[in-house]
Amino acid sequence: MKNFEKNVLEKLDEIISLLGKKVVVSIPEKLELEDYNFKINSDGWKKITVGWENYLVNEKEDIWEILDEECKGEQLFTWDAAMRETKKLGKTIPTDEQLDNLLKDKSDLENITFPGDRDTNGSFYALGSNLYLWSSAPSGSNAWSRLLYTSYSTVYRYALNKARGFSVRCLKN
Questions:
Q1: Do both 11 and 45 map to the same domain?
Q2: Pick from 91, 83, 79: which is nearest to 145 by CA?
Q3: What's the whole-model pTM score?
C-alpha cells in the first residue's frame, strides 16, 4: 500500500474512533489476468492425431496439448480439469463477474494465442482463429466462458458444456 493511502486510512481510522465508532476501511485489490494461458506439465502424455493435427492427451483424457503450428504448446481443458489443475497449483480462475470487468475487448488480453477449442464429440475447431476462456462460474450443468476471435475486438459471453476443451487465464497472484 502506498504511504499516502496508508496515511489517509490512519487519519480516517483516528477520526472514526474519536466519534466512538469503529469501522474497517480497505482499498480493493486490483485484479489482473496472467500474461499467458495456463499450462501444466505434459510429460508422458499420449500422442493422438485428429484430422491432420497432432495433440497430446493426459491420462484422464480431459486436457489436450496442441503440437502443430502457431499454437504449439497451448493446452485446452475441460472445465472440471481446469478447476482441478489450477487448484493444485494455487492458481485462481476468474469468476464470470471478474471476467466481465477484466475483458472489455480483445486489447485487454496480453499475448493472445488463438488455439481454438475441443468439442464434446472429440473434434478440434478454429485453430488459429478463436480463443475460448473458462470462468470459474458454473451455470447449471454448463459454465460461463468468453470467446474472442482474431478478426473482432468484441468479447462474447456464453454458458457452454463443461466437457468442451477451452483455454484458461488465471488471475495474477
A1: no
A2: 79
A3: 0.83
